Each structure stands twice: as structure tokens, then as C-alpha cells.
Fold each of these.
Amino acid sequence: MDLNHDACYSAIQVRDARYDGRFFTAVKTTGIYCRPVCPARTPLSKNVTFYATAAAAQEAGYHPCLRCRPETAPELGPGRELPDSVSRALQLIELGALDEEGMDALARRLGVGERQLRRQFRQHLGASPVAVAQTRRVLLAKQLIHETRLPMAEVAFASGFGSIRRFNEIFHRLFGRAPGELRRSEKPEVPAGREGEIELLLRYRPPYDWEAMLGFLRLRAIPGVERVTDDAYARTLCLDGHQGTVTLRPGPGNALRAVVRFPRLQALPAIIARLRRVFDLASDPVAIAAQFSRDPVMTALIQARPGLRVPGAWDGFELSMRAVLGQQITVAAAVRLAGRLVAAHGEPMARPDGELTRVFPRPEAVAAAELASLGMPRSRAATLSAVAAAAVADKHLFDAGNGLAESVQRLRAIRGVGEWTAQYIALRQLREPDAFPSADIGLIRALERLESRAYTPAQLLARAEAWRPWRAYAAQHLWTA
């Protein structure tokens, strides 16, 4: 990303919040990097340089500012100017790809060479993939130090460090002091406990239509797995055999307050990444609105709901089951079927939380089950079984490793999965901003009402050309309308 020095300097002089998270200011005389909104005195122009990412600033030898706290900047999703392989690599890194496997495996999943991927990261982000992953760990650790009372050992593991020694070494190198010395409060430490309870804030770029997000999730909440109240969303989760729960509600400022209860602290980065995807916290609604400004229908819808987001999915397999169950029936009917599936094949929670009593079934359990007895057509039961078998055979089936066309084609190769189902999975799970299920009757009827004319799926698809590359957001606005 090319950053014009004079333009960036003008932004930091007035502390323009529109640029918060879009670039970082590195101060040569102090060795720190800051957000554009940092309240400290603006340094001289000759003493600063600008980086598109925190990872680039950190790899260049600068350390995060303790005053403006770069870890609290709203994190934006990959920009349109990035190569497809870099955008998808960033998504996979956020979900922990480099923690589980090395660079070779990441490059293979993306279908590119390791050298090419490193070169693209260096060119477009100014940092290597490993540096991006390490910066994420450092900034999460710094957030946990400031926002929680966790002991430093628990901060280390909860932020993704493999050892306390490595955690201490990196903080000494960056800040010249022990991690614990960054915590200014003298209140006693509070361990996460047996349930691993951690509370922290997840920032976003305003505006954010929390009411619409909660309404979407409320209509689709699966009994036993999800709970939606007037101002909060909660659900069960199971990762690597460990069970837990998460709860989100509005927090102070432009943030959601998350309470994570999970016994394995090392899973926190992956849980945060999933929550950010479910609640679409990395999108920039102002930039998306600008793309739609020439379309009168979209302009009117955005003016009515300016902070609307595209709800994501907690888990790819769970979303695929929802999508198949929802084929050609109402949302309410699909939820009832999902509840029966969970009651019959979901594992019970060892420590239930009110009506949160079960976790969603695993692919292995669904693949081995007789599903027609749950009250659905045999053809749909066969499709559920086929998707489950495919998920068992390929653990990366629902990862964002391929482009939209390739992902849809791969999903459609599964027996019973059509274009609508594949596009819906791409939209909510793969986070494809241009996915568009043009055969969806809800989209067709919404546009017919708005434009007072009839549409076929083919005509809707042609009409949606004007909404590229954000057709998923256009679909969400139509669904909401």
C-alpha cells in the first residue's frame, strides 16, 4: 500500500479518526509507532514515517505506543488493493494457520509458492507472514495486560505464545521492560479459573447496526446452542474436545464486550477471530456505502441502515448444515429441524448455562447418523450426510483458501449442494464479499417491492452486477429490508 507522506501527516495533525487503523505513524526519535488519533504532541514531519500495518512498523524495529495503544485501533479487513492470495492468507493467519502449520502448508492451501507469498506480503504489507502473526500475538497480549487482571503467565498463553520465556523475551525487546511493568494498575491479579473466563473488548469501525445483527441471529438461533436476549448473544462452542460459551453485548465506545468461558486459554486467539467473523467487525461501512452511492436502491437502503453488517458463521460445518436444512423452506422451519439435529446428535454440555445445553454435532456424528427420522425429505437427509462426509474427508473444506468461483465449484461437487447453497456458504462462512445467492426468493421479492417490477433469478443476477464487488452486503440489505 502506497502512503502519501503529506496526506498522512495532515491526518495525524488533526487526529482524523477516519484513518484510524488504516495506517500507523512511526516516530524515528522515540522508536514507537502510533495510531493517527494518538493524543501525544504531533512530531515533526521529518521525524516520522508511515506504515500500512502494525506488523510492518513492528518489523522495522518500532514498538507500540503505550498511550494510544495500537491494539485498540479498529481492525479492517483485507483491502481490495491486495492480491487475492494475500487477502486469504490474512484470514487464515487470523484463524491460527501459522500456529498449526508452517509457511509451506499455508502456501499450499492458497495454491501459491512460499517464496511468492512472502514476496507479496513484503510488497503489499511491508512485513512477512510470520511477522504479521507475531504482531497479532503481541497486540492481543498487550490488550489483555491492559483490559484484564490475568496473571502474566495466563496472558502469555491466552495471546498465543508457546512459552512464557518467549513472551518475556519479545516484550523485553520491544519495550525494554517485563510485560507486567506495562500494567499500571496495582489491583491484585485474577486467574481465569477452571472455566477460563476472560472479558475483553472487540473494536469496530462505526456505524454498527447492532439491532439488525441481533435480529438476524435471533430468528436463526438454534435451541440448546444459541441464546439471544434483548441486548446480548450467547452460544456454546466446542474446540478440540473442549467445551465453553461466549457472550457478546454492546460495550463502551465503538466496541462489543465479549465474555469468553473456555478452559483452554490457548484457544482465545481462534475464538476472537471467529467472533470477529460472526459479527463482521472488520468491515468498513463508510467505504462500502461509497461504492453503492450511484445505485438509488442501495443508497436508500444504506441510509435506512447505515451500519448494517453481514453476519458470519461460527463454524463452516454448522453453517453448511443450516444452509442445507434451509433449502426451499422457511427460516423458522429450518431452525426447528436444526434443533432436532442438535437434540439427537449434539453432545450435551458438561456444564450447562441455562438453556445452553448442547454443542452443535460434529461432522463424524452426522455422517454416521440416520437423518431422515428427524422429519425431512430423504433427499435432504442424503445431502446432509454427503456434506458431513465431505467435511470429514477434508478438514479445510470450509476454509477461505480459494477464490469465490473455485469455492462454489468445490462445494457444488458435493451431492445435493446447488448454486444457492454454495453461494450462501461462501457469503457467511468464507466471508466472500461478492457472494450472491441470486435464486433466493427473499432477495427477489425484496427487490420486486423496491422497484415495482418482476424479477427472475437471472434478471436479479444481472441487476446485481452494479453492486460488485460488495454483492454480499447488497444481499444483506435486501434481506433486512
Note: The chain has a mean pLDDT of 94.
Amino acid sequence: MLTVTNPVTEETVATIPAGAREDVDAAAQAAADAFPTWSQTTVDERIEMFRELAKQTEARADDITAAIVSELGYPVKFVEQAHTASAVGDLQCLADSLSDITWNEQVGHTTVTRAAAGVVGAITPWNGPMGMVTNKAGAAIAAGCTVVLKGTEVAPLSSFIFAEIAEAAGLPAGVFNLVSGAGPDVGEALVTHPLVDVVSLTGSTRAGRRVMEVASQSVKRVLLELGGKSANIILEDADLQAAIEDGIEDAFRNTGQACGALTRVLVPRARLAEAEEFAIRKAESYVLGDPYDPETTLGPVSNANQLRRVRDYIRSGIAEGAKLLTGGPEAPEGLERGYFVRPTVFSGDNSLRVAREEIFGPVITIIPFDDEDDAFAIANDTEYGLAGAIWAGDPERAKAAASRLRAGRIRINGSAINKRAPHGGFKLSGIGREFGRYGIEEYLEYKAIG
């Protein structure tokens, strides 16, 4: 068995089975057995199923919220909207998006059709434990594939609830299968399994490299949503305060544990001091503590290893000479228990480790630029390319400048994320796209007939 720890209290809240290769074998066989029938269902039948999955997920909303709060310590009000309600919306979005796909088209005398790719091995992370399941496993099932999911062992309870939801919704046996356990055991067995046709991972770049390496032995299709070090570019005529505050809210969501978080804040050099003051004020406005206290606005990081990692990064920033504006590696006052990190803001340049490496905690770095060319040179000077943001007085100017930023999803003047539009990145941020029809199409193959 594996234990699940509450990061607020550091106490065990649950135990789950530590799966093994034989569990993956059983799940993969069940998925393979179910595939011929499920892959032949009509689009209308799958739309109806996803409407029911959304309904059943909404009915379990309180259970989902309680599970995520106990596993990750995020503030309850945040979880209700950003995780639970979002998961319901994801399933509804998949139902709507199925009608957006061109399933058959005529090319001369040939009919080109879209067909389900097969059995999908899905590996999801802990920072968004329910949404990652609904987006990843959901898109594969919507495509007509069957799924074996290795949910995260850090925050696994949501994946068990989804398995119950799938059963309650009437999803046929074998279409969704769950094997809990650790990556080296269950994950590697899943990626190498001969009955698995596609592997989809959301995780670290290191994990993505390993999945690509292992999956290549059997030439499986690999979909990867990996890390990021995204830039929030604030041009000289932008509303600086709004851009700083919105950017920090994005960077600190999930306690900074978000792959697309806007952790590099690029500001005109002439406005650096002003930007620093806005950032200090915003970071120091966060309240850490009990996730059920309505005053709490920021939770802990997920586990003890993550706590050490984030605090080590903060120490490295100080050691490299970055200007520490607020926060630091010490425990927040009055919170000696729990995996809490002080909201931390650095000011420096793009050569710092804290500006180049993904920290996965509530830490940002403000970086000045000299002109627009300099801003985009700094923004693109990264191994990653997942997300970004551009702020300008004229939103059309910001949209036009977006072509200069090598990133997969770019927000303009704080625009909301559109779940019907694709999510995914360039460079080390991964391969493939999620959300809407784009996410479903990753699990489809083309067939030319005639």
C-alpha cells in the first residue's frame, strides 16, 4: 500500500494499492477487449455518454472538492471553481467538441476517415488531479479509444472517484481502467505494454524523456505535456498594475504548481521600480493556512520533497545575487507544520537559475527589458515554450506581437483560457495538444478508403 499525506497537517489521509505489472496486464487486457466495441460507437452515442459523465461528476462535486483539499491543501473556494467545476466543464466541452471534428471527407475517389488509435496508457500528475483525468482520459475515450490510467500516487483520490463516476454513468466495462501505483512500477509497465498503442503523459521534462525512450522500443505514439517557464511580457503602454497582479495570480495558482504559470515577469526597464512595488504588494497580500478558512488564499506545496526543492531554489536565487523583494526560504510565521512556502518575488536577469528552471512553487522573477525586441529575445531565451502572456495598451498590438513569442498558448491582456482552443507547447514543453477537438484528434488515426 501507498500512503497519501495531507500537506497542511503532514498526516496520512488515505492509503491506496501499490499496483504492479500484473495489474497493468489485467487492465490493458480489459481495455483491449473493450476497444472493438467502444471504437465502433457513434459520435452521438459518445456525446450522450459525456453529457452523462458531466452530470455524474457534478453530482459528486462535494466529494471531489473534499478529496483535492485533503490531498493538496488548496483553499476550498479555489478548488470548487478551478478544479471541481472545471472538471465538469471539461467533460461538457468534450461532448460539444465531438461535433467539431471532420470524421469523414471525400478526397477525389478516396474516403478519408478518422479512426480511434487504440488502447491509451494515460499518466496524470498531482497538481490538477481531477482535471488532468477528465482532459486526458476523457479526450481519449471521446475519440473512441479505451484507457488504462495511472493516476498520481501523490493525489490519487480524484482518479478513484472518476472510476466510480464512469461506472455510475454506464461507461462499458474495460473502457476506463485505473491502476494506482508508483511511476517506476506501474508507469514503466504501462509505457512498455504490448497492448498499449498510445502513451500520454503530463509531467516533468525528465519523465517525458524517459517515456519517449521506453516507448520508442515498440514505436508507440507519444503525447507529452511537460514543463514551462512562461513569460508575462508587459509592454510600456500596458496597465502595469493590472498586468503584474493578474500575472502573479496566474503564477501562484495551485501554489505555483502549474506548468504554464507565468513565472517570468518582463517589464520595461524604466518602470522596474514601479513593477517591483506592485509585485511586493500583491505577493504579500496572500494569506497562507487552513484551506477551509475563508481568509486563506494560498495553500502549501504538495509534499516534503517539493518543499525542499522550492526552498533550495529560493536559496540559489539569493546565492546567485538576485534581488529578493519579498518572501524567502524560511517557513512562514506561525506555520512551522505543513509544506508552506512564503510567496517569493525576485528581481534580476534571465541568466539566474530561478529565471531559467521550472521551480513549481510560488516564486517569480521580474526581469527588465530595454525595448520590444529585447523583451521577445528574453522571453524566447528558454528551453520551454508552453505558455505566455502579452499586455499592451492596444490589445490588437499585443495580438500582432504574439507571432514573435514561441509558445503554444498566449493570453492577451489577461484573457481567460479558452478550453475549446488547443493547449500544448514548443521545445521541451512537449508534443501534442489538449483541450477541445484538438485534444480528441490526438487520439485519432487517418484511414484512406477507396
Note: The mean pLDDT is 97.
Amino acid sequence: MRTVFPLPFSHDEVFSGEAGEKIPYHRMYGKQYCVPSLTVYTPEELNELRAAAEAVDAIYSKVMRFIQRYMPDSFLEGPLGIHPGLIAAARLESIAGGITRQDWIIGEAGLKCIENNTDTPTGIPESAALESLLIGLAADQTWTAPSAHMDERIRECFRSWLTFYAEQGLKGLVTFTSYGEHVEDRTNTTYLMERCREAGYDVLYAPLEELEIVPGEGLYHHGREIRLLYRLYPLEYLIGDRDETTGVDIGAALIELVHEGQLGLMNPVQHVLMQSKGFMAAIWSLYERNEQTPEYCGFTLFDETEMQVISRYLLPTYFTAAPFEQSAVPYVAKSYWGREGRGTLLLNQEEDLGTTEMNTKIQAQSVTQDKDEKDDADEDIEAYYANQPKVYQQLVPMEQASIQTEDGPYSGYLLTGVFVIGGRFAGMLPRVGEKVTGDMAYYCAASVRERMNDEEEKEWRSWD
């Protein structure tokens, strides 16, 4: 059971001032999202997470380059599920490293990275700004904030991106966009924008709905051409966008501008390769066939250290459920483009009494904004994720955690998000929710306790 330290303040006391201004979505969908508590990690856990996350990020980048250079379009479109309209731009090699968030489970099997959000991760202001505010309320100098250097990592990342694009002739104002009426997305986007401004660049926020594209010519905002764009909008959505009035394929036109070198996108389009859940199965397939790669490309892809990283921190993941069905190992089915737990199924296999057949129990976590009723839009969203192709990953138990909420005590499961920005550990995003972590999970800020006496340990464990 993970130790959680409740702060001696109510939700309204914490979020009535600066904290509420920084995180205006501290309540979402009519319920509390941010709780005034701290998820406690040990220094040893933090050190291992930092090293492991950076090592896993390096593995992702290496496999991305391998796929860009050696795998045919049919592999990108088939096993990876990349939309054909994205493939040419996804092959463009930008600098490795970006703004990403890995999801980790800490349990009996050790640390395991179960996903990597490489295209449009959120939760950035919570980690970079709110975490330190909540730790400050603890009024205890022995607490440290694991996300303390996140702002600098963001600035470094934008400097790296914009230096690269400047060498390609793309300079000037950096435009940041998201759906303007979506408070969480807009807050995440403008937070990044301010860090970019601090890095020395001219910036502007432009709501996604105000952008205009002229196919083959350029992307505009109120007549001003955009050459550099950070967008908090998934590429798998973008590529299918079409203007119902004009009939223009907006997404395809924008991606063509990127491919032709007229627009610099952040995160770059290459990140869509890693965002696909199929990428996790590709890593595992290459790991299991590492000795065969010289026959294909003339070199061994992973060295001994990288093989150890994959074996220790990643999970067996396949394009088919057969390996798990044959071995009776519990597993998870994940939709290729699943987000916030949507399209994820937990499958627990148990032997029937008196038979040798396996009985598959399927638990589906459906995440909606309204738990009581689904309107047509909700059903369309669920169908979108449920009908996607899936990968199959070994199931590992999540660590339990109990927290105090406005609705009373809540016992759930901890998922530890780890931001890796520009290839370096940047911060943590702990969330406590159901066995499939959805957008109704609670954010409970990360903290590291350097010293803890026996009395404190006993008191905090009483919350477990």
C-alpha cells in the first residue's frame, strides 16, 4: 500500500488562491480532481525511476529511428496502425526527444513502464507548478519536489526544437494552439507557451478553431502565416479533420505543409510512431529477435545494457493474444490510440474446476464524463476506441492507495506518470483511480521524504 500524506487543509482552502489560478480544472466533470495530499516516494524509488525513465526513453528513440530508416510503409500502416496520410511526414527525422510522459506501475515485480504518451501528454501544470505549492503547505523542510526542474527541462526542449527548425529556415513567432474552450488543454498549452517565452522566443496563443489553412500555401491565424506550431491536438484526430463547409481536408493539408518544410510542428510528426500502442509490441518483437537483426539491417539493434533495460522495465507485448492464452498469463488488451483508459480491457484467465479449458473473464473500464448516463456522443467515443485494433500486454498488479476526498475515503490504484522532456527526467504525475486509470482518477502530487521517524511512519501507515 502506497503511503499518502493528507495535508491539514480542505480542498477550497488550498485552491481558493494561487493553486486554483494555476490549475483551474482542479475540479472536473462535477467532481474533485486534485486532492490536497502528497503521494510519498522514497529517494531510492525516485533515483531508480529517473534512471529507468531516461533509459526507456532512449530505447523508444532508437527504435523510432530504426523504424523510420529500415521498415517499409506497409509496416507503419499495418502493425503500427499509422494513417497513410501521416507516413511520409513521420519519416522526417527531427531531433530525438520531446515532451513525453511515461506511465509506470510500482509493484511486487518492481518498476514497469506500461505506456508512453509521446504525442500530446497533459498533466504538465500539475507537476511543474502545483506539486511544489502543495509540498510548501506541508511546512516541512525534509520534503522535496521531484518535479522541481521541470520548467527548465521545458525551456531546454523548446530551445532544442527551435534551433533545429531555424536551421531548416523556419523562424519567427511560435504559435501555441488547442481547443480554446477546453480549459485543461488550454491551461497545459499556455503553460508551455510561457516557458517558451522564458526561453527567449516570441509566442502567441491561437485557439485551434481560429486557424485557417490554405492547401499548398500555408497555415494562418487572422491573416498571419504560422511557421512554427505547438499543438495540443492528437495527430490521429488531425489527419482525419475535414472542413464540412469547404470540403477541404484540413489535416492532410497541414501535414503536407510539414512534409514540404513549410511548417515546424511540436511535438514533431515522428512522435506519432511512438504514440501508437503497436510501437510497444514492435519493441518487444525486436527484443525477442535481437540476434536476427544483423541479417536484416547489418547490425545488432540493442546492446547488452539495452536488452537488460527492456527485460527489466518493459512488459511482454504482442500483436496477438495467443502467447498469453497459451500460457494462461493474465494480460491487457489496449486499443492502438486509446487515451485516458478508453479502449482498454483487463483479461484475467483462470482454470475452470474439473477442466483444462481456460475461462476468460473480461473487465472493461468505461470512462465517461457522466457515470449515470451516456448520451450519443459518449457512445460514439466509446465505439471509436473499442473498435480500434489492439495490442496485448502482460498484466501486472497495480499498487493500492487510499486517499481522502471531498466524498470521503477512496481506495484505488496508483499509476505513476513520469515526464521525460528532451530525453531527461523532468517530473512525476501520480494518479489514483480504478484498475484502468481514466480521466476520473485523482491527482495526488508526488513528494519525496528524505527522513521519516518511526512515529511518523506509524501515523502515515494508518491511512493505508
Note: Residues 43-70 form the longest helix (28 residues).
